[in-house]
Design a protein that fits this description.
By secondary structure, this protein is α/β, with parallel strands linked by helices. The chain has two domains: 316 residues, ABC transporter type 1, transmembrane domain (ABC transporter transmembrane region fold); 180 residues, 3-Layer(aba) Sandwich (Rossmann fold), CATH 3.40.50. The chain contains 22 helices and twelve strands. It has a six-stranded mixed sheet with strand order 6-9-10-3-11-12. It has a four-stranded antiparallel sheet with strand order 2-1-4-5. The protein is elongated, with a radius of gyration of 35 Å.
Length: 590
């Protein structure tokens, strides 16, 4: 939670005024029993009509205390809400920015459902915790302490009951907190699993219906939900003990207080009004400790959520300042060494004995990969499912960093280059075609925000997507979130156009034509081949037809490079490539 307190620095005034106004409200509230006690004692000493003026003055004073207390309470609520809302706004802003800055391994480890939970539910819980804390963290202890002090001013013997009650209640609250906080943390982690299951079912609804497994998926959700419910019930039982235990302890204390007070009234040590005042102070303690118990539950939840949010910020602080995951000092040191190399290098991309593990202790996804690519070359990458094709090309823009070896772009080690600057030179079309809510033009300008309509139209033509744009009504046609109003092939062509608008030095097509028919795929490759910008192109595919015309082809097999060369060379020298080709075109043609 300490990590998140910095988001209150712009609301220091509100954080001070909110509890101060609450204490002012509490101060007026503490005077009320004294006024009532004086009123009762004065009336009991005279006849009902003996001192009407005093009764009226007490009545007016009670109204004034109530009105001023109400104004103080509303003012405190305003400042507390202002601070809590501002806190959550700035926290959510920075948390979203942090999630966007996380690299691929961190995102993979965190999980989509967990990120959504921490952006929404956890931030809201932390906001509620701040709000309740500012309103009650001084008021409740102040009322309790003030009631005890006031009780001592009335009668020391009766006040000892107050001291004993407060001590017992604080021990009770402390024990419940000790057991409740770990339970609440487990509840939040189980909530992540339920959200993950829900997201998976919603995104895969068509597949679920196609295979008629709705009942199985519902049973799985019910099982996950039941585990969450059980943990919530356990945590709820513990936190639910606060209110009844508080009521029991306070009511027992009230019984003792009335008994002791009755004896002292009979002995003439206390007046009836003083006993009523002591009873009112004990009732105030009861109400405030109930509020304090609810505050404890809310703070427990807020602390659990704050720790989960802090874990996300901790991920960003693992590497130093560079988004590629390298310390800032190393970036500065290496930049001086690579400036001259980048100017003189004839190689667009270099892999020097590169190996990759996604997680520490896991098997190598890539092993001992070495090759060099000249500027303007077209490189095909082919291999079976799980052979490491995507892992290979994801290392070029620094999405994953090499466990050993070196990956260079334009002569510079990608570990030592600023991620933003590196990726500004690379156009990427990922396996999954992703489009965003907005017009076609807005989606295409992700590649180049200042691109003109003619540049967009040229990119659309090269991506063989003219018919898509015309069918939808032009560049200003609306695209639904995720491109839901487009087919798979239409989405792929528009994502290729988005990358071409960027006019990158390196263009990576990661199996981005899998949904295209052969004719459209061929036209696309011909258009890319005729580009006159000197762009270095990587075409990743499982189809031999998509890579056979490349300058060179890299053949991947189970994380190792099985061969590299032209189509003709690989047909002679690489059994893996020949097997892939013959499985698609037949042995006779091969």
């Amino acid at each position: 939670m300490k990590r998140l307190l910095r988001y209150l620095k712009n609301y220091k005034i509100q954080c001070v005024l909110a509890p101060l106004f609450k204490m002012l409200e509490a101060l007026f509230e503490l005077f009320v029993p004294l006024v009532i006690a004086a009123l009762i004692d004065r009336i009991s000493d005279y006849s009902a009509s003996g001192d009407a003026g005093f009764v009226v003055r007490c009545f007016i004073l009670l109204i004034i205390l109530g009105v001023v207390g109400l104004i103080s309470s509303c003012t405190a609520q305003f400042f507390a809400a202002r601070a809590a809302t501002g806190f959550s706004k700035e926290l959510r802003h920075d948390l979203f920015a942090t999630l966007l800055d996380l690299d691929y391994p961190q995102i993979d480890g965190l999980g989509t459902s967990t990120m959504i939970t921490r952006m929404t539910a956890d931030v809201n819980t932390a906001q509620n915790g701040v709000n309740m804390f500012l309103r009650l963290f001084l008021r409740s202890p102040f009322i309790v302490a003030g009631a005890v002090v006031m009780a001592f001013t009335i009668d020391v013997r009766s006040a000892l009951i107050f001291v004993a009650v407060v001590a017992v209640l604080f021990v009770t609250v402390g024990l419940i907190m000790r057991y409740n906080i770990p339970m609440l943390k487990r509840v939040q982690s189980k909530l992540d699993k339920v959200l993950d299951f829900t997201r998976e079912n919603l995104s895969g609804a068509r597949v679920i219906r196609a295979f008629n497994v709705e009942s199985d998926r519902q049973a799985g959700f019910e099982a996950a939900n039941e585990v969450l419910s059980q943990d919530q019930r356990r945590a709820g039982r513990i936190s639910g003990l606060l209110n009844p235990l508080t009521y029991v302890i306070i009511n027992l204390a009230i019984v003792m207080l009335i008994g002791v007070g009755n004896i002292q009234v009979a002995q003439g040590r206390l007046t009836t009004g003083q006993v009523v005042a002591l009873y009112n102070y004990m009732s105030q303690i009861l109400l405030e400790l109930i509020k304090f118990a609810n505050l404890v539950v809310t703070i427990n939840r807020a602390l659990a959520s704050a720790n989960r949010i802090s874990e996300v910020f901790g991920l960003e602080e693992g590497p130093a300042a560079n988004a590629t995951g390298q310390p800032a000092a190393r970036v500065e040191e290496a930049s001086a060494l690579t400036d001259s190399a980048s100017e003189a290098s004839e190689w667009a991309v270099e892999f020097d004995d590169v190996s990759l593990r996604y997680h520490e202790g896991s098997d190598e996804a890539l092993s001992n990969i070495s090759f060099k690519v000249k500027r303007g070359e077209t490189i095909g990458v082919i291999g079976g499912t799980g052979s490491g094709k995507t892992s290979l090309i994801n290392m070029i823009p620094g999405f994953y960093t090499a466990t050993s070896g070196t990956v260079k772009v334009d002569g510079e080690d990608v570990k030592c280059v600023d991620a933003h600057e590196l990726r500004s030179r690379i156009g990427i079309v990922p396996q999954k075609a992703v489009l965003f809510d907005g017009t076609i033009a807005e989606n295409l300008r992700w590649g180049n925000a200042s691109a003109t309509d003619s540049e967009l139209e040229e990119a659309v033509r090269m991506a063989v997507a003219v018919d898509v744009v015309e069918a939808k009504g032009g560049l200003d046609a609306h695209i639904e979130p995720g491109g839901k109003n487009l087919s798979g092939g239409q989405r792929q062509r528009l994502t290729i156009a988005r990358a071409l608008v960027k006019k990158p030095d390196i263009l990576i097509l990661d199996d981005s034509s899998s949904a295209l028919d052969n004719v459209t795929d061929r036209r696309l490759r011909e258009n890319i081949r005729r580009m006159d910008s000197g762009t270095t192109v990587f075409i990743v595919s499982q189809r031999s037809s998509s890579v056979r015309d490349a300058d060179r082809i890299i053949v991947m097999d189970d994380g190792v490079m099985a061969g590299i060369g032209t189509h003709a060379e690989l047909m002679e020298s690489c059994a893996v490539y020949r097997e892939i080709y013959e499985s698609q075109f037949g042995r006779e043609e091969g």
